[in-house]
Amino acid sequence: MSKKPISIDEELGMFDKPENVKRLLRIFYACVVVSLAIDIFYHKHGIFTWESFFGFYSVYGFVACVILVIVAKYVLRPLVMRKEDYYND
Amino acid sequence: MINALPPAMILILGGLLIPLFKGRTRQALLLLLPVISFINLLQLSHGSYWIYPFLSDQIILARVDKLSLIFGYIFHLVAFLSAIYALHVDDTVQNVAGTVYAGAAIGAVFAGDMFTLFVFWEMLTISATFLILARRTERALGAGFRYFMVHVAGGLCLLAGIIMHVSETGSAAFDLIGLGTTASWLIFVGIGVNCAWPFLHPWLTDAYPEATITGTIFLSAFTTKTAIYALARAFPGTEELIFIGGAMAAFPIFYAVIENDLRRVLAYSLINQVGFMVVGIGIGTALSINGAVAHAFNDLLFKGLLFMTMGAVMYRTGKINATDLGGLYKSMPWTCGFCIVGAASISAFPLFSGFVSKSMVMEAAAHGDMRWLWFILLFASAGVFHHAGIKIPFFAFFSHDSGIRCKEAPPHMLLAMGISAVLCILIGCFPQYLYSMLPYATDYQPYSISHVLAQSQLLIFSALAFTLLLLAGIYPAEIRSVNVDADWIYRKGSRQIYRFCKWAFNGINDWADRIFVQQFTKLLAQFFEDPGGNLQKYSYRLWVEGSGIPDDQEQVAKQIDSRSRSAAYPVGVGVLLAVVILALVSLLLYLR
Lengths: 89, 592
Prior knowledge:
The complex is a heterodimer of chains A (89) and B (592). With 89 residues, chain A is an all-alpha fold. Chain A has two helices and one strand; from the N terminus they run H-H-E. The mean pLDDT of chain A is 82. Helix content of chain B is 73%, strand content 3%. Chain B has helices at residues 9-17, 23-42, 66-85, 92-110, 114-133, 138-169, 182-194, 202-207, 213-234, 239-258, 262-283, 286-317, 333-346, 353-367, 371-397, 411-429, 432-437, 449-471, 488-491, 493-529, 531-547, 553-566, 571-591, and strands at 47-54, 57-64, 482-483. A two-stranded antiparallel sheet of chain B has the order 1-2. In chain B, helix 13 runs antiparallel to helix 15 and helix 13 (333-346) runs parallel beside helix 16 (411-429). Chains A and B meet through helix 1, helix 2 and strand 1 of A and helix 10, helix 14, helix 15, helix 18 and strand 3 of B. Strand 1 (81-82) of chain A pairs antiparallel with strand 3 (482-483) of chain B, so a sheet runs across the interface.
């Protein structure tokens, strides 16, 4: 992974092996599916009506984060990013 | 009670004695001071103590009730944990400043009157500035200076408000104030500076990442939480706070996503968490204020823990930028584990501390039917998981292998992080102990199936968004850069102001110099060289121009000149003038 030569006797970390990363991702995707599937069987109670809609929190969490990243990357960063020595001239 | 001392006294006086000790004795003292101070605090029951007359009013060094006590307890705990974490620091400046800083915060939350509050408030500023300056780099020097200037300005605003308030109401007692008068607004804004409200906040994100490794642990704890206490005491239920808090919860997460310095990411997420507390105070119900205070309690632990883990990384690697780090889980597995606990707590995972307090504020907003606020807070909850919950551990300990191989954090740091992590989990699992300390009695139940499920879904799908964006290459790569924030106004804007002032004031100065010093005095000097002659000449010229009779002006001017130079006026003129004056005088007398 890294360009730095890794000495042979050094143990590779758990996440240096791509198959481990893949396994972890698979477990994670399973969690995603299960958490959404529960919504079919269990009717959530909330104070607002939309809280009990199917997948409300899932969709909101996902969309919120996508919007967050898109806005931060394509709107905020071009506006505020300067060179590291911006303040010390 | 009889044997107890004022709550702040042990830490402040003890802190000032630290330079007298060296080595092991000093380390023991640093650890013991918070413990002794805490035992001292336990001696106090509810009530007001150490009341002394002051001017026309009185100062109260300790007002002990549920609100001040819970802040007092957690401040002691955090002071103790920070002292453990900073045990290796053999720097008198930091040792003294850290201890006095904690003492000042404790003094401020127990202050029963505004004068005492103000004194401890300023002590916070001064001791905190030393924790920043102690890094002894050029950037830290600049950041420390700016920190000091901003807080002095805020402190003066507070002082002006206090003086006006005391003269209006005749009482210096620090209780419910509420917005209304000019005085109350000044106090409100003065507290707001320490609370890092939007546009007043950049001191925090500017200075905290520039302070020393251990200094930041202290800093992250006391200044903002003291301000939260002051707001909870003086301005509960102030509607403006809901707007301010909502903005605080939302805007920093955008900055946190693109920020490279991981301690600065945490500084932005600190503002985000304080936003939840400010909202809670603004809503002003028993549930929301309980939520704000409980969240302050939890935040002190998990934010401290996160800063500790990043400090440990910085201590071992000398680096803190996400671009330089990665793959450290192999070298620092314990620190990594503690970091994940802190991340889970701040993200409000079920069974972690954030879950049991943040939900109180959310639910209070829902009960008040504040829909837009509720959506913003939910957005901020998803966002905080995104940048503090995932980004911090991911870029420091996983991500690409930076090639750095270092030792695990030293034992005392691990101990401090370990205790914090265990407390985060304990509070998350057994929140009733925290709830029993809150200012209002509560039977709040965070663990309903609906709530656990909702929060889990929110977080899992936030994580999914992060994973997919990262795999798709959309997630913004970390870039070495500076992100301009509101501090631009005084860091760059000040130069523009300077340039403008230079242009405006130097311009006025030049103009005044030209007109008054050079031209006007010259004219005056010319005139007074021969005032009589000049007067005649100008009058004659006026007469000639007024009457329109052409005459040889130059000839007359020469005559006047030569006459006045030789002082040879005809006698007749003198006599005529004398007669005219006598006539005028007699006329005046006659008219009377």
